[in-house]
Amino acid sequence: MAARIQFENSCEVGVFSKLTNAYCLVAIGGSENFYSAFESELADVIPVVKTSIGGTRIIGRLCAGNKNGLLLPHTTTDQELQHLRNSLPDQVVVQRIDERLSALGNCIACNDHVALAHTDLDRETEELIADVLGVEVFRQTIAGNILVGSYCVISNRGGLVHPHTSIEDLDELSTLLQVPLVAGTVNRGSEVIAAGLTVNDWTAFCGSDTTATELSVIESVFKLREAQPSAIVDEMRKSLIDTYV
Amino acid sequence: MVGSRQRPETATVAELRPQLGLPANGRRRRRRRLPFTRRPVAEATVQVDFGFFDPKPGDFHGVKLLLRSYLGDREWDVSGFVDLILGQTTVGTVVKSESPEGEEQEEGEEEEAAASGEGGESGEAEDVGPYAVITALNLGRYGTHQCIKELKNYILEACCEDLMKKKKLQLMLSGEGAHDVGLLVCERFVNFPHQPVSPLYEGLFDEVSWATEDEPTQELRDSFRFKSYLILTRIFMTKRRVSEDDESIVYVKAEDEIFLKLCSLSFTVDLPRKEQVVPPELKGYKEMALFMVVESCKVPAFREELKSFLLED
């Protein structure tokens, strides 16, 4: 199911959080409402970790990750890196990478199997994405925008892309990613999908300005209505740790 | 100003209707084009045109950005508040820039716009978000909206020290009293030039008086007969004793100094430390919220002073 939330007075929840099938990162410094919205949905299932990256709260746009790994920019401090390594499940490889384009969340859109990458990423970074995240990497643009991580959000079950994506591009991307895609908006017409939405295979969080129509599109393309966390977690039970302190 | 020409403010909208691509209609409502020169740091002068537009639903994201910290860190129904502002098209203005390159683009865009059947308005200013917004909202008319209720609570909570003032405010904000109060909202980006500010306020007060005659129903006409205006704003104050006894104040918006002089009631409130954003050149100053009530009979005096106040370069 999809939930509408706010970070302070901002509807850009995808900027202040990062949700995957194995963990959830949340920015520190927001109100308790924001944190508890994630906790209430996810606490029994996956760890919800409060963190900063490079001392900032815009963690959703700086890091890229899935159930296999988490990539952090070079601006991440050692303490933050250690904190994340300690808090996340052992199966998740946490790696800090040296890439000039440090807003990895804006440059990379990924699910557990495939990733779209900014066309100007280093070759080494591309290899690291493939290794750490365990995905196949495709360099693409979305509706002419190179910031694929900002204008598209994908899970293992579906994806939402920039509203001006043409039908041909949608078909092409859908074939590459092997998931159904829909062009749409979030937060009452905002085209920056990833800023307003964060999603995994069974739940999604979007900004409170999101209209009922947008919400129903999100729930249908990501197949959230039928999804129950227990089904997915049972598959992943071995890779999740038992107790979280 | 270096290298600038003083261009007279464009005359009546009726004369400009064909050029602006507006349909001819009888309403006094307008789109004014007021050219202003903004002086940048280097010695070259950049000509920037600001357009004054009626609020429309498409401005939602830009206006929301301007109003995001209207009540500071407080979580409240900002979106609802923005909707109220954008829904009131007869009183209220949104300022957008019309870029210099717009001149060349205009021809092509107008052709496209004409072909797709849209007005010239949407073609030009679409991409550049609002730089400023100004409006006056009747607290009685909109009193049932969640955002206005939250706003009233915020004001009453803030005014906890002086019980007399709190009583006065309570009378103003609740029941019948609220119908006479207009919430005057003016938010703009920090680096917005001062030249358009006076026309902005002129436009607002003109619109309010036109609305008292032009609105379709008596109820609506009466809703714009404000007896007083309520203003929420920010200032910087220092506790350091300078030569005078007064605490020295730095006004984020220059017109607040005039409002403060003319107001019938005002109080300041410390902001929680998290909300303090003090620029380095204002070290020793504290950012504070300032609340003012200005009687509408003082508006003509305000308009006069504002004109001369802002002309001093």
UniProtKB/TrEMBL annotation, chain A:
Quaternary structure (record): Monomer. Associates with the 60S ribosomal subunit.
GO BP term (any one): ribosomal large subunit biogenesis
Predominant localisation class: cytoplasm
Pfam families: eIF-6
Entry protein name: Eukaryotic translation initiation factor 6
HAMAP family for this protein: eIF_6 (MF_00032)
Family per similarity comment: Belongs to the eIF-6 family.
Function recorded in the entry: Binds to the 60S ribosomal subunit and prevents its association with the 40S ribosomal subunit to form the 80S initiation complex in the cytoplasm. May also be involved in ribosome biogenesis.
Keyword terms, alphabetized: Cytoplasm, Initiation factor, Nucleus, Protein biosynthesis, Ribosome biogenesis
Organism name: Spirodela intermedia
From TrEMBL, chain B:
Chain spans, region Disordered: 1-35, 94-126
Comp. bias intervals (Basic residues): 26-35
Annotated Gene Ontology cellular component terms: nucleus
Coiled coil: none
Biased amino acid composition, Acidic residues: 100-113
Family: Belongs to the BCP1 family.
Protein's name in the database: Protein BCCIP homolog
Organism field: Spirodela intermedia
